[in-house]
Each structure stands twice: as C-alpha cells, then as structure tokens.
Amino acid sequence: MAPWDRLPAPPIRVRRPRGFRRPRGLPRYTVERDLPVTMPDGVTLLADRYVPTGVRRPPPTILVRTPYGRRGPAAVLNGLPFVPFGFQLVVQSARGTFGSGGEFDPLGSEREDGLATVEWLKRQPWFSGSFGTYGASYLGYAAWAIAAEAGPELKAMSLQITASSFRDAAYVGGSFALESTLTWTDLTHRQQQPFGMLTAPLLSRRRAIRAAQSGRPLAELDVLTGGAPMRFYQDLLANHGNGAGGPDAAPGGGYWDKRDFSGTVGEVTAPVSLLGGWYDVFLPWELRDYLALRSAGHHPYLTIGPWWHADARHGIVSFRESLAWFRAHLRGDLRALRRDPVRVYVTGAREWRHYRDWPPPGMRQERWHLHPGGGLGEDGPRDAPPSSYRFDPARPTPALGGPTLLGSSRPVDNRPLERRADVLVFSSPPLTADLDVVGPVAADLFVRSDREHTDFVVRLCDVAPDGVSRNVCEGGLRLPAAAEKPVGTEGVRRVAIDLWPTGHRFPRGHRVRVHVTSGAHPKVAPNPGTGEPLATARTMVPAEQEVFHDPDHPSAILLPVVERSPEAVVPAPAEEEPLA
Length: 580
What we know:
Blueprint: E1 29-38, E2 44-52, E3 61-66, H1 73-77, E4 88-93, H2 110-123, E5 131-136, H3 138-147, E6 154-160, H4 167-170, H5 178-190, H6 196-212, H7 221-226, H8 231-238, E7 272-279, H9 283-295, E8 301-308, H10 314-330, E9 342-346, E10 351-355, E11 364-371, E12 375-377, E13 387-391, H11 415-418, E14 424-427, E15 435-439, E16 442-449, E17 454-463, E18 469-479, E19 485-487, E20 492-498, E21 502-506, E22 511-517, E23 543-548, E24 556-561, E25 569-571
Parallel strand pairs: 3-4, 3-5, 5-6, 6-7, 7-8, 8-9
Antiparallel strand pairs: 1-2, 2-4, 9-10, 10-25, 11-12, 11-24, 13-23, 14-22, 15-21, 16-20, 16-23, 16-24, 17-18, 17-22, 19-20
Helix pairs in contact: 2-3, 5-6
C-alpha cells in the first residue's frame, strides 16, 4: 500500500491552561440543556452550554452552530473535549433541526441566525467578553457566515475541511457535483428520522450513486434517492451556473447572494486557523479563503494532511491544533503556537513540511507538455496531429477515485479507467530523481469539440514501477466558459483547468501520468452536449473531442515543483506510523 494512503499525525504537546485545575478522574462539567435563543423573526433556537468544573471565573466561550444534533456522539464532534481544558462550550442546533424552530434552509439562515445568537451570547451574565468559533464542514461554514460582523469579542476561529462558500464546490468548474450534492441532501433529509443519524451516513451515498446510475433526468433523482422531493437539491439544480460559469445560468437570480461569504473573508479580524485534506471536496476553496486572509494582511495558520472529508483520522489532529489555537488566542498562552504558520504533509514522501506561507516560498511552475503517442515531458511540443476520443454522455466516463463527501477518497488504481477509449493517457519516462510537487496544479489545453457544450476533465496520477497508477489530483471545466480563449479560426479553444492543489512526491523510478477525458461520473453530472437546462435534459449527444499538442498549440500540465529543504521537514514520528 502506498505511503500516502496512511495517517501521520503531527505531535502537539497539550499543556494545562493557567488558572485551571483539571479534575481528577474523568473530566467533569455541568450542562445546561435547551437554552432558548429567540431570533428576530420570533423563531426559537435551542442550545446546550457546557461549563467546566474547577474554574474560578467564567472562562472563554467556544460557539458552535450545527445542523447535525447536539447530543451523544455529536457532542464530541462539536467540541466537548475542549471543556475540561478550561473553556465553556455553547452548541446550538441550526434552524429547523433537532428541536430548534423554523424550517431548515441549508446555507440560507446562518448569517442572520448566527449574528442574533452572538448578540444573545454577549448579554449572558456568564459571558467573559471573548469567544471563538469551531467546526468542520457545515459548522465551519456557519462560522464564516458571521465572522466579518461578529464584533471584537470574536477572538479566534479554528475551522476544518470547510470554506466560506460552498457554491463552487456544488458547481465544480461549471459542472454539477452530482454525487456530493445528492448525498448531502439525502443525509440531512433523513437524519432526524428514527435512527437516522446512524443509518444516513452509511446509506445516503449508496442511494445517491444508485440514483445517479439510473439514467433518469437529474430533477427526478432526489425522489429516486430519498422517496420525496428535496428542496435543497432542487434549489441547487435551479441555480446551477449562477455565478459559476454554467451554460444554463440565467442572469440575476440571487440565490447565492446570502449564501456566499467569500467576499467578506478579508474583513475578518479574528485570528483564523484552517485544516484541510488533499482529498477533501472543499480544499480549493479553503485555500482561497487562506489567500484572501493573506491578501488582507492577516496571518492565518494552515494545515493540510493526507485526508478526505469523512476521514475520521483528522479528528484528533483537529482537536490538538484547535486546542493550541484557542489557548493562544482566548487565554493568551502564545507558547502553544507552532513556529511556522503553514504545515503540509507530502504524500509519497511520508513527511510534514513547514513553510512560512502558501504556496510554498521558492515554488516554481514547470510546464510538462503532452506529446503525441501518449508521451509527457518537460521537452517542447512536437509536430503531430491532435489526439482524439469520443465521449458519450449516455455512457459517461466514470471516476474511480477523487474527492467525495461521504465514503473514502483514498487514491485508487486507475488502470481500468486508462483502458477505456474515451480517456487519453500521457505518461512521462521513469523519473531519474524524486519530484516534489507542492502547490496549485493546473492544465493549459488546446482543444476542439464538435459540440458547443461539453466538458474536459484532467487528472494527475503517480505510476509505480509495477504499473499501478494512483490518482493524485484532478479538476474539470464545462464549456462554454468565461475562461475560454479562441485560437485561430478552426474552432480550437484554449482552456485553463484548475486541478485540486496537492503536496506529493513522485519517487525516483515512478512516472508522471495525465488523463484527459470528458466525464467523471457520478462525481459530476455528464454534460448532455445539447445546452438544455441541466435539471430536465433528456437528450444525450456524443461529442468528438480533440486535444492538440503541436508547437502552435502546446497543451501541458503545470506542476508546482519545490526543492526539499531539510529545515522544513518533520518526519512522521515513530508512534504515529501510517496505518496499514
């Protein structure tokens, strides 16, 4: 098994906060259940407050707002382990979930409800004057929704596998992220049913994939998956491309106006710590948030490990790093902070790298050209006809691996995919030295299609000496798109495709491989090729695709290459050996 399939966790010493006497035996705390918080429209949301024993004055507060429940196992994920270390925790159920009033409108109520909750928090006699926000995925999004307007009392944010906007994750490159959106909608639709919190995470993805493979129009898949229409899924379909470059987007709209907080990230003054995974569905936009903070002159911390979204392995790392962050910024113990703000794990090298910033200082972009006959290399393009393939949306090219919301996104062997006629494969010769690729990855392609509406998908793989070809990262683009640049008069288009960022070593003797295709089903819905509205399209038209790689059309993969600096390297400690 490849080393990047396994877990190394960074060591972080946990010191007891000053002024806190940790109780003997099991952690002790008191709980106030079902605290009512009235919203401006009169709806009442419920919250639980956990207070540690053994403190002499009200400790700082950690605020968590969640649609996934407040009790049982959810309490641990919501931050209960922080309480014995001298923090009080307030966990509130989002509108329309687990006892809170109103209707759950995913993404739509978090700013207004969150800010009203903050004002309520500030009025409580037990509020010490400072609070932080914490959470993964939707919980982190809810924290971003209030971050720019929460006031000076917000002193720290520690967020994981999340982003300030989920819009572009729903419409990846202008396509529709079918598997993730359908899975999450079914999950939240079922979670409050009897035993729903146990069964939905296990079954929702299976149901979604089965529905996606039915061949039915997208608008019917929510009923096929969950047995009833599901509002959020239908809303995403109706607003496909609104601000995301999709072909069937109507002007105006406004659905995303109150659901996208990426434009306010630079206004956030509270210190922010972000944790992500190389195979997480939200990683590109989490890094966009990091860059927005840096552009505004802030100094966020960033950790990226070899994890995916539902990977339980990042839980302990999230707790350790968040505890250090809250100790530093809510209790004033700056000794808890690590020296370098950016720490990333390099898969294939089995080591952590510490950097001052992201992308890593000293990174250089190398252009590896696609060659006729399936070659790939740094040498220039060659005179040759384009490579071609036929994409049939009625039998879409599958995705064997890659980021997914639920289930495993562990890299897999892509050789079955590479034997398909609708996948172009370009491979380098065996490497004569290790190649460390750390940073944003992109493709610059010159393409032609006989369809005005079509997709292009690019995937980067690592090929071992035994022939196993594991996916490293991927990305796609739906045409027509604003980024498209006409070339000449023969219908050739130049397209820029952003892949997922990565931190990966291609070891000596391995080969670098690139796929070019037009589908990644069911992760993204196939482009029907007709320009019909996404939700109701029934006609599927094959597309004849060409990829040019001659001197006038130098298609290439753009790799961010870094040199291994010994002072930046922290090997995985022996007690944290990667999992088999």
